Amino acid sequence: EVQLVESGGALVQPGGSLRLSCAASGFTFSTYAMTWVRQAPGKGLEWVSAITGSGDTTFYADSMKGRFTISRDNSKNSLFLQMNNVRAEDTAIYYCARAVVPGSIDMSFDSWGQGTLVTVSS
Amino acid sequence: ETVLTQSPATLSLSPGERATLSCRASQSVSNYLAWYQQKPGQAPRLLIYDASKRATGIPARFSGSGSGTDFTLTISSLEPEDFAIYYCQQRVNWPPITFGQGTRLEIK
């Protein structure tokens, strides 16, 4: 069974940093592109960042570029999101998700974690 | 950036009725469109990808159609568990990957 479990969400002050993790199991992690998607309270879904299976190529939404860094450790079946210089508008549930097709960057997402809440407030 | 506009914002129907949800793209996304269902307190669930392919385990009452800029998600006969928020998402003109604003399907 495919499982994705996020962790690391917390209350953080504006300008602070946070590192989110996503532990994957039940599939060959290194063969799948992965992504982070967020959802502000009561709002819709917003794509944050994506990374290829090998980790050699990354993609970001413009508002996160330069502040967020996506990475992965295929030896530990883990995905990360380093969040720096956070803003109040970064407050959201952050989900990690898996691309549908292994070995591609086909960005439809067939498995999702339960999410981790990041709250940016002083 | 490709903007996805979903309509209606809210759809009120009864169990057993047919639901038709629309997603319109600001530019062609070919057939690279997905639909997700989200219930309160839960993560999104993939229903349809590549416009018309049902994801694993999705009941046959869910179907997707369309290409280019106009897409439809149809639920042939609503079950009580289908009342939720539905999002469309495109993956052809990315980054960024974009989602529609959602359609809330509520019980009438």
Secondary structure layout:
The complex is a heterodimer of chains A (122) and B (108).
Chain A: E1 3-7, E2 11-12, E3 18-25, E4 34-39, E5 45-51, E6 58-60, E7 68-73, E8 78-83, E9 92-99, E10 109-112, E11 116-120
Chain B: E1 4-7, E2 10-13, E3 19-25, E4 33-38, E5 45-49, E6 53-54, E7 62-67, E8 70-75, E9 85-90, E10 98-99, E11 103-107
> What would the average pLDDT of chain B be, to the nearest integer?
96
What's the overall average pLDDT of chain A, rounded?
A: 96
Rounded to the nearest angstrom, the radius of gyration of chain A is: 13 Å
Shape of chain B: globular
Output the number of helix runs of chain A.
Answer: 0
Say how many strands of chain A there are: 11
The largest β sheet of chain A comes out as: 7 strands, mixed
Strand content of chain A: over 45%
What is the SS-derived class of chain B? mainly beta
Which segments of chain B are poorly predicted (pLDDT under 50) over 5 or more consecutive residues?
none
Q: What is the element string of chain A, with H for helices and E for strands?
A: EEEEEEEEEEE
By secondary-structure content and strand pairing, the structural class of chain A works out as: mainly beta
N- and C-termini, Cα separation of chain B: 35 Å
Please provide the count of β strands of chain B.
Answer: 11
Approximately what portion of the residues of chain B adopt beta-strand conformation?
A: over 45%
Largest sheet of chain B: 7 strands, mixed
Plain-language structure description:
The complex is a heterodimer of chains A (122) and B (108). Chain A is mostly beta strands and 122 residues long. Helix content of chain A is 0%, strand content 49%. Chain A is built from no helices and 11 strands. Chain A has strands at 3-7, 11-12, 18-25, 34-39, 45-51, 58-60, 68-73, 78-83, 92-99, 109-112, 116-120. In chain A, strands 2, 4, 5, 6, 9, 10 and 11 form a 7-stranded mixed sheet that branches. A 4-stranded antiparallel sheet of chain A has the order 1-3-8-7, with no helix packed on it. Chain A is globular, with a radius of gyration of 13 Å. The termini of chain A are far apart. The model of chain A has no long low-confidence stretch (mean pLDDT 96). Chain B is mainly β and 108 residues long. In chain B, 0% of the residues lie in helices and 49% in strands. Chain B is built from no helices and 11 strands. Chain B has strands at 4-7, 10-13, 19-25, 33-38, 45-49, 53-54, 62-67, 70-75, 85-90, 98-99, 103-107. In chain B, the strands form 2 sheets. In chain B, strands 2, 4, 5, 6, 9, 10 and 11 form a 7-stranded mixed sheet that branches. In chain B, strands 1-3-8-7 form a 4-stranded antiparallel sheet, with no helix packed on it. In chain B, a hairpin with a 3-residue loop joins strand 5 and strand 6 (53-54). Chain B is globular. The model of chain B has no long low-confidence stretch (mean pLDDT 96). Classes of the chains: A mainly beta (122), B mainly beta (108). The A-B interface holds A 35, 37, 44-47, 50, 59-62, 95, 97, 100, 106-110, 112-115 and B 34, 36, 38, 42-46, 49-50, 55-56, 87, 89, 91, 94-102.
